[in-house]
Description:
Layout: H1 20-23, E1 26-30, E2 33-40, E3 45-49, H2 63-66, E4 71-75, H3 92-105, E5 111-116, H4 118-129, E6 134-140, H5 151-156, H6 161-167, H7 173-186, H8 195-203, H9 208-219, E7 222-223, E8 226-227, E9 243-248, H10 257-265, E10 270-274, H11 281-284, H12 286-299, H13 307-316, H14 326-338
Parallel strand pairs: 3-4, 3-5, 5-6, 6-9, 9-10
Antiparallel strand pairs: 1-2, 2-4, 7-8
Helix pairs in contact: 3-4, 6-9
Amino acid sequence: MAEASRPRPAGTARLRSVGDTELELRYRVVHGYRRAFRMAGEGPVLVLIHGIGDSSATWAGLIPDLARTHTVLAPDLLGHGASDKPRADYSVAAYANGVRDLLTTLGIESATLVGHSFGGGVAMQFAYQFPERTERLILVSAGGVGREVNPLLRLVSLPGADLMLSALRLPGMRLNLGFALQLMTLLDTDLAQDAPDLLTVVDSLPDDTARNAFIRTLRAVVDWRGQVVTMLDRCYLTEGMPTMLLWGDRDSVVPVRHAHGAHRAMPGSRLEVFEGAGHFPFHTDPARFLALVEDFTRTTDPAHWSRDRWRELLVEGRPVPHPDGPEAAHARARTLREASERSAT
Length: 345
């Protein structure tokens, strides 16, 4: 489906006040590790999956409104927020398993997954591993679409990153970082669009345990050349899966051209671009984000998974572009460039 042209709600609309009981953290022990999550509302289930270095708190301003019509579940992924941070497998596939296991302990059979950034990669992996439990996909500035990623994340994936992150906790360093981000804001750089959220990520790494979990998670998907995990080769399997892509056109972490690439690769997907927004469009324009999510879940039917159709899609394989078309030339170039980098997950 082409990019929608419907009128959008004003970005200045204020959300209603957040109730403490709706945002209270709850806990479940799964495989011996404590998993923190927030849960509110009744109705069809929305699972909100945050990005790397973040937590369920990133959704706090949206949960009460979404909970008017949905059961909203927002977990702290293992290694993040108030969840345990063991020396463990922090791969995208392991996180998808973790989401499945948490849903199972809560008696939830299927859900619409909303994934931001790294969480978008987890949501796509969940849909790939457990299509029968996935009703819809809403991918927000999602990772796992192309190789490009902000150079700062590539830098943090290098050896010695733990020392660099530790230095950010030294007296005065956060102040200097704040000044640097203010300068970026004055220069109107794309990175400055997300300055407050970037500082929140820094503040979420107060000790060695949190920093180690962050680095292990990042290295599972990023190296010095960029992202190393892709779902583009399996996007054709989303046929029949209602999918919406939400992106900021000034995203400096995962560029908006990834949104257009994913839109082309995911049959029937819907693309919505937030003008002037960075990597956190749901913070920049929460009213529009809420309206889009509510409209999408209201106007689409949950995916109906068929084992036979899944097998047919796998046997047929990924559609091949016309050999003389620009899509084919681009695909050949990408295949040659990334042949040694693709994930076999």
